[in-house]
Amino acid sequence: MSKKKKEYIDISIAYLIRQISKKEIVLPSLQRKYVWSHQQICQLFDSIMQDYPIGTFMFWKIGNQSTNDKNLRKQLMFYEFLRDYNKNDDLGSGIEFKPAVSGIGPITNVIDGQQRITSLLIGLTGSYFKNRAASKLYINLNMRKKSSEEEKEFKYEFKFLSDSQFNRHYKKLQKISADTDIWFPVYKCGEISKFYSNDKRYTQKLDKFIFECKNFLSEKLQNNELKERNWNKYSKVLDALFYKVYNDTVISYFELEKTSLTDIVDIFIRVNNGGTNLTKTEMLMSVVTSVWRDGRSKIDKFLKKINNNGEFDFDVDFIMRASLFIMDKDVLVTQENVLESANEIQKKWESIKSSITQAVNVISEENFSKSSLRSKNSIIPIAYYFAKTNKGSVSTTSTTQMIQYLNTVQVLGFYGNHGDQALRQIRKAMQAYLKKSSEFKFDTIKDEYEKLGNFKKLLRITKNDIDILLNSQYGKSSFAVLSCLNSQNRIAISKYDISGGNAEKKVHQDHIYPISKVKHFENSQDDSEIETYRKYNSVVNLHFFIGRLNKEKQDKMPKDFFKHFGAKKQKEIIETSLIPVEFDKLDAGYFDTFYKKRRELLRKELLSVFNI
Fold first, then answer.
1. 139 near 155, Cβ under 8 Å?
2. 1-35, pLDDT tens digit by residue?
3. How many CB atoms lie within 10 A of CB 320?
4. 508 with 468: CB under 8 angstroms?
5. Is 294 helix (H, G, I), strand (E, B) or coil?
6. 262 to each of 271, 278, 329, 475, how far by Cα in Å?
7. pLDDT category, 341, cuts 50, 70, 90?
8. How much is the mean pLDDT over the chain?
9. Helix (H, G, I), strand (E, B), or coil: what is residue 121?
10. For the chain, does the N or the C end have fewer beta carbons within 10 angstroms?
């Protein structure tokens, strides 16, 4: 006898939002965080407006009658959907829904579709924090032909604007032309009609919506007369938006009932592997939160603590990867061993948390921060050291070796491609020597690492490598080299990170001699011209400079720019940036001599940094 096929149920967006508002649809704790960008939200709304499919949804209903359902309500935590998203504040989590445990009615959980549903809520009822301001979703009512191929993919133009951006747009508006943006807030679609429930009143509600939209727009346009021809065009867009939210059955879902948690976890992993970036560590985190009731809230709280208001940007991926590493498990978790790993993380959480905290404290004290760390993975072996030695403090010798290790892996890009394999090899090397020593010995780690063989990444910097590093061109590699030259550089970077991204404190890589002078050599066919360009663009001609000053410098010669600084400030910059001569010598004709002298000075410093 064949199994009856599950039927899909089609509902409107308005109906879905109404059920969510009544707390009848929630998120189970095994769900991952909200991760969509504001561009993805805009694309979703454009797809809906164009009648493109947005995928099906899967819900899971937990009743309150059977013993199994009652146990599930106690075992899992449930969360309300986000409406106002700020990655820095909530890390993508919703508010815990506590009535789910003791409530009377059934709970409908979203297993597949969280990102899309949350995006709909943000666009229609909430906000997205970007560019240091809460922004709301707007639609451009003045549809026009798209200029580029990329723009042609989107028929409707959606955009997130802050209140000040929106008001400023209409304040500056002088005259309406064919190219004028007429931004209208999407949230008005819900604000005016309150996601009403009586479908028979559609025409009446639509007429009211269009009428109030016209009044709102007329007020915003101020002295610009809202011509009937233009309004007819705008109202068609509003009509389509209202139809898509209230009348069209955009949401198509099927519902699971009487399903065990083990089966739900398996289904969740399968369906989400086809979505947006469900990594192996996110899969593990989902299972952790399904077996550990308050695991999600504890891990969220811990992340906020170690990130220290923006100093770092550690995430769930880092926590899961570090946990597996510390527990001596493979850092690439599989569906077969994920449940075992999740249970072990819960049991060993306090020890894991303590080891990571000690590692973060050490690197923070040495002025490392998120911008000077090329990879979060580089911290994991330090946490492993604390986990295996059970040391409450760290010696000066160990700290020195940790800094040398961090500087090495940053400039080599050790944890870039094949990062998981690099972690496995590092752990094997550490296991070999930690049986004999309680100090962090990077020199020994390098030796043990090389004995293992079969490695794709080198972990040792030689004299020849120093010359390669000095040739590093402007970018991530040169940034890593500059940041390891002295702690003052890392202090400046750390201050910027802790400031929350204050542009005035941003640390720029500045060309001491302006690159603009040789920019025309970049694509030259002449070898000597190419060599000149590469010298100007190499780390030898770069230093760290704070935001505002870097903008003021522009393409001025160093002699002309720095002469306006006092003697004390000039001395400070020369010492921090390792400039080999006084600024008054740095005119156009002195570059070759400057390059030779500074290259030699940086070479000596790097030999010292890497103890060569």
1. no
2. 344 556 899 999 999 999 999 888 999 888 878 88
3. 24
4. no
5. coil
6. 14, 18, 22, 47
7. confident
8. 87
9. helix
10. N
Could you tell me if residue 88 is left (phi over 0), alpha (psi between -120 and 50 degrees) or otherwise beta? alpha
Q: Provide the CB-side half-sphere exposure for 273 (13 A, CA).
A: 12
Query: CA 9 to CA 19: how far, in whole Å?
Result: 14
Bridge partner residues of 139 (DSSP)? 158, 184
Neighbours of 402 (CB within 10 A): 22
Interhelix angle 13-21/228-246, nearest 10 degrees: 60
How many Å apart are CA 562 and CA 502, to the nearest integer? 24
Q: What is 170-229 written as a DSSP string?
A: HHH-----TT---EEETTHHHHHHTT-S-GGGHHHHHHHHHHHHHHHHHHHHTTS---HH
Per-residue H/E/C for 303-358:
HHHHHCCCCCCCCHHHHHHHHHHHCCCCCCCCCCCHHHHHHHHHHCHHHHHHHHHH
Q: State the pLDDT at residue 145.
A: 61
Q: What is the pTM of this model?
A: 0.73
Could you tell me the CA-to-CA distances from 306 to 101, 183, 362, 363, 498 in Å, in that order? Answer: 31, 40, 12, 11, 12
d(CA 17, CA 197): 11
Helices (H) and strands (E) in the chain, counts: 29, 13
546-581 pLDDT, tens digit per residue, is 776 767 777 889 999 998 899 998 998 899 899 999
How many Å apart are CA 350 and CA 352, to the nearest integer? 5
Q: CA 345, CA 158: separation in Å to the nearest integer?
A: 42
